[in-house]
Amino acid sequence: MRIFGLIASALLSVFVASSASANVIPLLLDNYTQAVNTDGVFHPNVVRSFSGFSGGANINTGAGEARLTTDNLVTPTFSGLVYDFSPHRDLCARVMVYARNRQTSATETGVLAVRAVTTGGTYTLSQTLPGNTPTMQALDFDFTALSGQLWTLQRLEVTWDLPAGGTGLRGLAIDKIDLYEVPEPATIALIGLASSCGGFAGYRRRKLAAKKN
Ligand SMILES: [Ca+2]
Questions:
Q1: Among 16, 38, 154, 185, which one has the highest count of C-beta atoms within 10 angstroms of its own C-beta?
Q2: Which residue from 118, 86, 112 is spatially nearest to 173, judged by alpha carbons?
Q3: Residue 133: which of 163, 98, 95, 96 has the closest Cα?
Q4: pTM recorded for the entire structure
Q5: CA 166 to centroid of ligand 1, rounded, Å
Q6: pLDDT per residue as tens digits for the range 3-43
Q7: Bridge pairing between strands 110-118 and 121-129
Q8: Would you list the DSSP string of 39-67?
Q9: 97 C-alpha to center of ligand 1: Å?
């Protein structure tokens, strides 16, 4: 039985190492409960600012949302949030944006784009959101296929715009943004090692306890 436990520990460590390489835990970048600062785990080393047309974006701390247009007053041309990382981060392989298009007509679509500025280049992914989405949607922007390898993330831009040729009003609310980082290979090795050591130490403890009895 004991040897099975040991084998299981070893298998678990292999599993942990391989799943860690595929970027695992969501890390909160911003939840919009603070007007000036970000309030996620990146808070000490990220600065949030705005891009696009003046007054087009605001942080509604009561609702805990970022709103990338004023309410039905202005036809947006382009509006966005910018996150500058210092020190720069390991590549975030994936960005999850929880957002909804607040317009009541389903035909009032808007384009939500996430742009990652890295030491290896700039990568942009976008999705067209229909209007009339009453609840926040989890929108997945996966950069792994685009970038192909690990680069260092310097800046992240989340923007909202009209589709090509589009007219009318567009309202976007973002509830939160999560980043999924790829751990460095050294970190992955340490996770695997810690797991194996834990398994072996547990095996020795059980063996010693059995001897005493
Ligand atoms: Ca929120």
A1: 38
A2: 112
A3: 98
A4: 0.73
A5: 28
A6: 555 544 444 444 444 444 445 789 999 999 999 999 999 99
A7: antiparallel
A8: -STTGGGEEEEEEESTT--EEETTTTEEE
A9: 11
Q: 172 C-alpha vs ligand 1 centroid, how far in Å?
A: 13
| Ligand 1 centroid, distance to 179 Cα (angstroms) | 15
pLDDT, tens digit (0-9, with 9 covering 90-100), for 34-84 = 999 999 999 999 999 998 865 667 899 999 999 987 655 556 567 899 999
Output the six-digit token pair for 188: 């992955």
| Residue ranges near ligand 1 (ion) with Cβ within 5 Å | 31-32, 64, 175-176
R_g of the chain, CA atoms, integer Å: 22
Rounded to the nearest angstrom, the distance between the alpha carbon of 42 and the centre of ligand 1 is 15
Ligand 1 mean position, distance from CA 183 (Å): 26
Give 167 Cα–ligand 1 centroid separation in angstroms: 29
Query: Can you tell me the distance from the alpha carbon of 85 to that of 179, in angstroms, rounded to the nearest whole number?
Result: 13
Whether 100 contacts 137, CB under 8 Å: yes
Give the strand pairing for 92-101 and 79-90.
unpaired
CB atoms under 10 Å from CB of 123, counted, come to 18
* pLDDT bucket at 145, cuts 50 / 70 / 90: confident
